[in-house]
Amino acid sequence: MIWIVIIMSVMIMLEFMIANILIKERRTIIYTEKNIEYQYIKD
Predict the structure, then answer these.
(1) Domain extent at residue 13
(2) pTM for this one?
(3) How far is 14 from 40, CA to CA, in rounded Å?
């Protein structure tokens, strides 16, 4: 039973890590899109 709990906690931690990485990548993509829009407005 203890091993199952350890494995579950490790899996949850990995999911959070992956989710944080994906969120950061999406935020950078959104920021780059906004920067491109601002550049077009300035031109």
Answers:
(1) 1-43
(2) 0.49
(3) 40
Q: If you compute the radius of gyration of the chain from its CA atoms, what whole number of angstroms results?
A: 19
Q: Considering its fold, how many domains does the chain have in total?
A: 1
Length of the chain as a residue count: 43
12-38 tens-digit pLDDT:
999 999 888 888 877 777 777 777 766
Residue by residue, what is the 3-state secondary structure of the chain?
CHHHHHHHHHHHHHHHHHHHHHHHHHHHHHHHHHHHHHHHHHC
10 is written with which tokens?
């490790």
| Start-to-end C-alpha separation, the chain | 64
CA 1 from chain center: how many Å?
32
